[in-house]
What we know:
Elements (H helix, E strand, L loop, with lengths): L1 E8 L5 H18 L3 E9 L2 E11 L2 H9 L1 H9 L9 E5 L3 E4 L2 E4 L1
Antiparallel strand pairs: 1-3, 1-4, 2-3, 5-6
Helix pairs in contact: 1-3
Amino acid sequence: MFALVVRFTVLPDHLEAFDVLVSDTLAQIARHEPATLVYVSHERSDRPDERVFYECYQSDDAFAFHEAQVHTIRFLQERGQHLVGPPEVWPLATLSGVINGELRAK
């Protein structure tokens, strides 16, 4: 499994446009990426100009497939105009957890 968290700080007058770009991207992920297990955009309740993505893929290869998709490339190219600065990206190493009701360990 491959997972990451990404934090974006969005320009206040770009929140709606950024969220539309995200929505368009999510629709394509749902349609074309069966090995993307979780891809969720969160709004921080204490900082409404921040978005936090949690992404989880079946494997490193599934993440590479995601990164090569036209919709992902479009998102990566267009997101910058909506952001205060570069996003923070935190790759995660899975230690253990519950996935679909099953206990999993490293």
